[in-house]
Amino acid sequence: MLAQPRAAILLLMGIATSAVSQSLPGLIDALVSSGASKFADFIQSDPEVLQLYLSGEVGTVFAPSDVGYDNSTLLALLGRDVSGADRRAAAFQSSRAITNLESSSRSFPGSILETNAQAPLLGGQGQRIVIDSRPLNLTSPTMKRWMLPSLRRQSNGTTPSLLRISSGLGKIANVIKGDIQYSGGLIHITDSYFTQPESLSSTAKSTSQTAFASLLSRSNMTDTLENTQSVTVFLPSNEAISVSNSSIPASQLVSNHVIAGTVAYLPDLKDGDVLKTQQGETLSISIRAGKYYVNGGLITQANLILENGVAHVVNKVLTPTPAVPVTGAASSNSMSLAGLFGVVCYMGMMVLA
């Protein structure tokens, strides 16, 4: 008897969900009404880009606001065929997951989103962007402005940031209006485009870490590192390198700061983590009062997104912990234990037989 009422309730829920979906605007209409009409024009300028945005591959759209939009760039795009770089830039503005402001604000120190821009040097996965939910002073809780019914403009005329998002070359884009529903997911309005990730050397130069860029050049490892799949680089600041007076060869010094085969964005790092460098030595992560340290060096700028991973600026030249060699006694003990385990297993099987 209960089956029929339950089936009726499920049917009504399905009809209600369908009705809500049908009542939501389409993507283009939602963009135009939310102040991102120029971005709407851009994605409509190329059938391939439009097909991506209207597909099920896009759950969240990060649309640059019309305010401050570079009209000359838009006119140039509309006046010529869209290039592969343009399509990558368009894909980079979308995430596969549906991400709302509340869940993003609650996650400390942030969250990682996979975009629709393919990254060959990340194993063919989508390039990442990183939401940084840490307070600017790193010590007090983040004010969750997404809870406020409205936002007032700051004294300088700009709209306060709801979320800070890290992309390439150390650039930050701010969500200034969010959780705009459309039939395919959510739209967040940003104050700029995300910046396309570039190589390690270009990123070091762009973020004014010229001492490390010079060190990288002297090491003759630039091409090797920049074509290595999935790396994490702890990049010593100019000041750190200038005061270190290290006599270590440039190649070894660079290798001491590179973790190959692992992309560790800040939200991936946990207190007590141990990472292995290219030299086989280790770097330890510690977190104190919301600040992140690597072998005692403070991460002063996090989540510089690279073509093949991520870099974090640290305030000291790191000295990794040497790998502990396996001694003969330890090896002998391990073999003895293994042998004893084998005998026990054998005797157990004989008894069962």
Write a brief structural summary.
With 353 residues, this protein is an alpha+beta fold. Helix content is 36%, strand content 24%. The longest helix is centred in the C-terminal third of the chain and has 25 residues, at 328-352.
Oligomerization status of the protein chains: single chain
Q: Number of helical segments?
A: 13
Helix content: 25-40%
Distance between the termini: 55 Å
- Overall average pLDDT: 83
Derived from helix and strand composition plus strand pairing, the structural class reads alpha+beta
Strand content: 15-25%
The main sheet comes to:
7 strands, mixed
Order of helices and strands: HHHHEHHEHEEEEEHHHEHHEEEEEEH
The low-confidence parts are: 12-20, 139-157, 329-353
- Strand order, sheet with most strands: 2-1-7-6-5-4-3
Number of strands: 14
Task: Describe this protein's structure.
With 353 residues, the chain is of the alpha+beta class. The protein is built from 13 helices and 14 strands. The longest helix has 25 residues, at 328-352. Residues 12-20, 139-157 and 329-353 have low confidence and may be disordered.
List the helices and strands and how they pair.
Elements (H helix, E strand, L loop, with lengths): L2 H21 L3 H7 L3 H8 L2 H7 L6 E5 L6 H8 L5 H9 L1 E2 L5 H6 L3 E9 L7 E7 L30 E4 L5 E11 L2 E6 L9 H7 L3 H10 L2 H5 L4 E6 L1 H7 L5 H6 L2 E3 L13 E3 L5 E7 L2 E4 L2 E10 L2 E6 L13 H25 L1
Helix pairs in contact: 2-3, 8-9
Structural key phrases:
seven-stranded mixed β-sheet; 24% strand; alpha+beta; 353 residues; elongated
